[in-house]
Automatic annotation (TrEMBL), chain A:
This is Uncharacterized protein. Keywords: Membrane, Transmembrane, Transmembrane helix. The chain crosses the membrane at residues 23-43, 85-109, 149-170, 176-197, 236-256.
UniProtKB/TrEMBL annotation, chain B:
This is Succinate dehydrogenase / fumarate reductase flavoprotein subunit. Its EC number is 1.3.5.1, 1.3.5.4. Residues 489-596 form the Fumarate reductase/succinate dehydrogenase flavoprotein-like C-terminal domain. Residues 502-529 form a coiled coil. The active site is at 324 (proton acceptor). GO terms for molecular function: steroid dehydrogenase activity, acting on the CH-CH group of donors; succinate dehydrogenase (quinone) activity. FAD binds at residues 17-22, 40-55, 230, 415, 430-431. Keywords: Coiled coil, FAD, Flavoprotein, Oxidoreductase. Its cofactor is FAD. Pfam families: FAD_binding_2, Succ_DH_flav_C. Substrate binds at residues 251, 267, 390, 425. Residues 12-431 form the FAD-dependent oxidoreductase 2 FAD-binding domain. It is an enzyme of class 1 (oxidoreductase).
TrEMBL record, chain C:
Its cofactor is [4Fe-4S] cluster; [2Fe-2S] cluster; [3Fe-4S] cluster. Keywords: 2Fe-2S, 4Fe-4S, Iron, Iron-sulfur, Metal-binding, Oxidoreductase. It comes from Actinophytocola algeriensis. Gene3D superfamilies: 3.10.20.30, Alpha-helical ferredoxin. This is Succinate dehydrogenase / fumarate reductase iron-sulfur subunit. It is an enzyme of class 1 (oxidoreductase). Pathway: Carbohydrate metabolism; tricarboxylic acid cycle. One of its GO terms (biological process) is respiratory electron transport chain. Pfam families: Fer2_3, Fer4_8.
Amino acid sequence: MKAGVGAPDRAQISERTYRTDRWWAYPLSTGGILLFFTAYALVRYFMNNYYWAPEEHYLTPLYSPCVNAACVPGSSHFGTFIPSYASWIPLGIITFLVLLGFRATCYYYRKAAYRSLMFSPAACAVPEPAKKYSGENKFPYVVTNGHRYFFYAALIFACINIYDAVLAFHGKNGGIGMGLGTVIILINVVALVAYTLSCHACRHIIGGKLKHFSKHPLRYRYWQFVSKLNPRHGQFAMISLFTVIITDAYIMAVSADWITDLRIFN
Amino acid sequence: MVQVQVERFDYDVIVIGAGGAGLRAAIEARQQGKKTAIISKSLFGKAHTVMAEGGCAASMGNVNEKDNWQVHFRDTMRGGKFLNNWRMAELHAKEAPERVWELETYGALFDRTKDGKISQRNFGGHTYPRLAHVGDRTGLEMIRTMQQKIVSLQQEDFAETGDYESHLKVFSECTVTELIKDGDRIAGAFAYWRDSGKFVLFSAPAIVLATGGIGKSFKVTSNSWEYTGDGHALALRAGATLINMEFVQFHPTGMVWPPSVKGILVTEGVRGDGGVLKNSDGKRFMFEYIPDVFKGQYAETEQEADGWYADQDNNRRTPDLLPRDEVARAINSEVKAGRGSPHGGVFLDIASRLPAEEIRRRLPSMYHQFKELADVDITAQPMEVGPTCHYVMGGVEVDPDTASSIVPGLFAAGEVAGGMHGSNRLGGNSLSDLIVFGRRAGLGAAEYIDALEQRPKISESDVDGAAARAVSPFDFPSSGQAENPYSIHAELQQSMNDLVGIIRKEEEVQAALDKLAELKERAKLVAVEGRREFNPGWHLAIDLRNMLLVSECVAKAALLRTESRGGHTRDDFPGMDSKWRNTLLVCEAYDDGARVTPKEQVPMREDLLELFELSELEKYYTDGELADHPQRSGS
Amino acid sequence: MSYKGNFKVWRGDADGGDLEDYVVEVNEGEVILDIIHRLQATQAPDLAVRWNCKAGKCGSCSAEINGMPRLMCMTRMSVFSESETITVTPLRTFPVIRDLVTDVSFNYEKAREIPSFAPPKNLGLGEYRMKQQDVERSQEFRKCIECFLCQNTCHVIRDHEENKENFAGPRYLMRIAELEMHPLDEADRERAAQEEHGLGYCNITKCCTEVCPEHIKITDNALIPMKERVVDRKYDPVVWLGNKLFRRSGSRH
């Protein structure tokens, strides 16, 4: 080991690390989760099916908004202004790109991915395997600087998800109703909104960029609110990942008639 | 004889010590156009000043408009029991506000008042909220601010000369062992690098000592290893005099448990913000310990004391905020009377007085310190505290205006200088002392150089001698058992703590002097193993000489002063004696040790004396001294 | 209460060295630095260690304990089991001088490269007015005790010696953030943060925050806000276009 901790003049220590704690647990578990979600999302997007439960009015967040002419009737809450395209391209491609873009450029997921997928570093004071390192200075990593645009998009999508959730209060016999799916969708929306609002770019835009809070009392209060959420951004990121998967899986199962939605009323 | 290889540097001003006073002196000297070096035993920015927590006293009047320099001056003189050098106290009170504001221009970020000024907090002995502060890490803020100002000056030099260090350089981890003179004048300093053990010679016509205190001669102390009295000892050996060495401040609240952190400071800010002292009966005992001289100035009931935090115009302050010497003695008495806490201290309770959130906000590093070092949550439990050696009021006798010692070219500022605080220092007056007299020392040194006709020269024989003395601990004694520096240090700390500590009596001080004489002989046999590269045993062996010399001054002065005043408490002479008020005990190097002689102080200037009520002066002064007082002669 | 603890301490210098085994007495309430001091006083008088305050306030006694960068004075023995062998090594990012002491001059050089506080020219002594809410962000960063644990643990330089030239490290990127958020600082620092001091190297893996003994949220509160400010200046096409069209001077309010 010549580079890094083995560089000349540094204390010559043969072990890579003397850490005795379970430092590998975080990269291992996080890496597993990230890979699982990616695989799950890919499968679901290319499935191009089971995204809308017509009786219950459940739309999976992975396909929302469904604006393609090929979307099944009822699933398009905002019209179908995009003509249908080749059937192998997922219907939810835009949603996929926004979702992926927001999460991939997210300051928390960057940490998670650098640590667990690239071991850069896997854990603090554990040497990374790569010989060269240039950080986020070069393509493709420099793209992460565009996080705020994905944030804007994610904010719009979060609003759409809220709208979808309202529509999910649809009774099987018309009027207002509620099922287990509605609850799941609601929980997911809360998790998504918490994740989106606690974003570092949001914190910056809302007030962090100001030099003098005292001259902008209202924005200061918003900033304080976001700053309270922000330390839990990582938790919200992981929670919302699972709620999205659970919501999608539930709606898929209902849509495919593998299970019947448990109705609370109507 | 060792082959001496010595690195050599030429400077105009050398500042020894990189704490608040040293950095401020260096900034001033450099701004006066002098080529300046800072020599520090530690890394740059680690000086003991970072330990100062509560704040920096300056009568800016931001929180209470009634505050002004006269009030600050009076508080300082009272705190020091009128033994202070009144001119220093005057300069200090007058100049502190400007020095604090100056720090803002360097980038300091003090806590703010509602209208955006520097916020000021209450502290023991100060009539009004007066301490500029940053939470409870004010010292860190000051040291960092001045460190960054030095970097900023270096950047200016870089822009001009292409060399960051062309006019101002920091020599960190470098210890000065001797000052070198040319005739009666300062000519330079001899030092070694701590990392390589190699020698360095600085030639400079002016040297500013800013080495801090002597606390490492005591066992229970809030001071770090650097506080070995180097500056005091260097000054003595160079022919300068020390005054007031019998006055050692024991901070009333140091941690007492666990043993490994015993002595670490608990800021007075805890009490300033509402914390109260209680004994094992749960009683707030300070009400019983208000001394006569302070009667009428402090609250006499708990109700009034509690009311004071919110309404200072209609209530008197709590006796928990009496000057430090009073509080330390009170705690000592409570413990002796068997009303102490389980680990030999008393309780300091803030948990029951402020909401947890507020405690964490106002005293973050105290919360942190107890949580991590003692596993005590100060928002839920009381702290256990007891007195700890904190500060030495005594130091190099200097001219108040220029900070010059009696040796031409030798200046001193900060804790190593004596006089300013008299027999007891008020909390918060130390940080302001550093910047007021740090600046004056830098200025004094620059003026001294300007008036100098010829640059002093260093003789090679002095250099050889210094080198030989520096490496002598590596020579094992030809006969007899070699001594371990760590053991001698431990014995010194124990005897100073037990025999010349917070309460003193003649036999014990005499016993300490006998012990010191023994240790001094044994110290000659100290021998260390290993090489010169970063060898802590060797470093300690060198520092030990300073500690022994300075401890001798402390003990001898303590034996001579047959009264109790401020930081000097004699069990056998418990009262304050007006006849001693104006007497300074002057310590100078003599033979192989130290000699202490009394000396009268210059009487206070008339206009300053008139700032006090006659009735107050009568508590401290002799009748003869007050015979000419206008209120008396007029009546 | 007291027991014999097993320790491995790295002894050596730039030419080489190795872990040495020691058995040292451990008492209740002690921290690693107490053990090192006991070692010095009883078994290894020339064991080199740097320390000052022993209260977590000066940031001198940084080392790696069981592989984790920590302050020796703030690592309590009670977090280890009595049977455990504890490894103490010097910081592994900086050149070693001897035993547990490393040459941290890299950090002081980087400090000099950060342009200093640029005070307002029209304000005299005592005329500075700043609101508490405006100074609080920078105050958090000024809690820094310069222990350099963040610099030591940052993989950008720990694992890549060659990046030392172009990367200021978390401590000094935080210093830029501190000045950038200082209510009265007048300098423009965003571009330089990215182009001269290497903010782009940071991949926000948060080890600096993890090891900070002062619990400063270096990544969340200093580095990421700085990155966002750099985006405002350098990477944001909308802001860039807005500035072109409306001739605003960036995001200074």
